[in-house]
Amino acid sequence: MSHAPRGALVDSFGRRHNNLRLSVTDRCNLRCVYCMPAEVTFLPRAELLSFEEIERVTRVAVTLGIDKVRITGGEPLLRKDLSRLVMMLSAIPGLVDVGLTTNGISLPQHAQALKDAGLKRINISLDTLNPAKFQQITRRDDFDRVIEGILAARAAGLGPVKVNAVAIRGFTEEEVVPLTAFALEHGVEMRFIEYMPLDAGRTWEREKVLFAAEMIAILEAAFGPMKPSPDNDPRAPAVDYDFVERPGSVGFIASVSRPFCMSCNRLRLTAEGKLRNCLFSLEETDLRSILRGGGADLAIERAFQESVASKWEGHEINTSRFIQPERMMHSIGG
């Protein structure tokens, strides 16, 4: 019989939090239009948490029931020697899953070291198989490197390898089938993410969201019928659909058309040590001041508990009450 850990992170809606996303940098070597502006001023290096500080926060969080972490950015592989952090986190008793979200550019040289350090899962961002469109989205010319990175992750045995694409109406309809065909061919899992209001230009409109139901219709026309996967985790953001007549599945993160706020189990730590209880949160808790001000682990515990206690019901994207956070996606952590 399992017992909730001491002071488990349960909010006022009964949601228990076991998943912590750790941003290690706000820097990125791409400039995706839905994530960040062409020109950015990044945080000074001294303001970022050290690996030791990240490990300490995670160790405390694990005593409160966190058992999964995902390393994010910006682009986390721009942090020097990231595999050392993976090794430090993997050694924490009670932490069962260390994942990474990356744009894949640096994976050809780092995939094996990450696997050896204990990385369990990897998500790689790729919105198109068209190199010209890739350059249009990212403002960079690294398409071939990303493809190499996906194949390097597979070769290193980092499974499951998931490929994430942001779905924007008028832009990605023609990408859904080729990306899925690529994923099926190479034994990786394709996931489509509805476009969310965290863009640099603040130009998000609901009309620009390509909805999960529309993508399923596009895929069924190309590959045959699909049905929800029987082993979907109700707390996971993605809902997987299996192909009925062939092996393979596709995941959909339908944050706009089917919000999953009421099963949310995630917290976020920004690169400079701010704890956020929602991707769209308007308030943050400063853990760096505790870490660098001589605070005890108990103060970190209390900060987690207070943040979770104040968590709202949901993000309200679909209502007139929605307020877009000042932070852009690259500075929150993907």
General description of the model:
The chain is 30% helix and 17% strand. The protein has one domain (19-332): Aldolase class I (TIM Barrel), CATH 3.20.20. Strand 10 and strand 11 (274-276) form a beta hairpin. A 12-stranded mixed β-sheet has the order 7-8-9-6-5-4-3-2-1-10-11-12. The protein is an alpha/beta fold. The model has no long low-confidence stretch (mean pLDDT 89).
Task: Break the fold down into its secondary structure elements and pairings.
Blueprint (H helix, E strand, L loop, with lengths): L18 E5 L27 H13 L4 E5 L9 H9 L6 E6 L4 H11 L3 E5 L5 H8 L4 H13 L5 E7 L8 H11 L2 E6 L17 H12 L2 E3 L10 E5 L5 E5 L12 E4 L4 E3 L8 E2 L1 H5 L4 H13 L19 H4 L2
Parallel strand pairs: 1-2, 1-10, 2-3, 3-4, 4-5, 5-6, 6-9
Antiparallel strand pairs: 7-8, 8-9, 10-11, 11-12
Overview in brief:
The chain is α/β, with parallel strands linked by helices and 334 residues long. The protein has helices spanning 51-63, 82-90, 107-117, 131-138, 143-155, 176-186, 212-223, 288-292, 297-309, 329-332; strands spanning 19-23, 68-72, 97-102, 121-125, 161-167, 189-194, 226-228, 239-243, 249-253, 266-269, 274-276, 285-286. It has one domain (19-332): Aldolase class I (TIM Barrel), CATH 3.20.20.
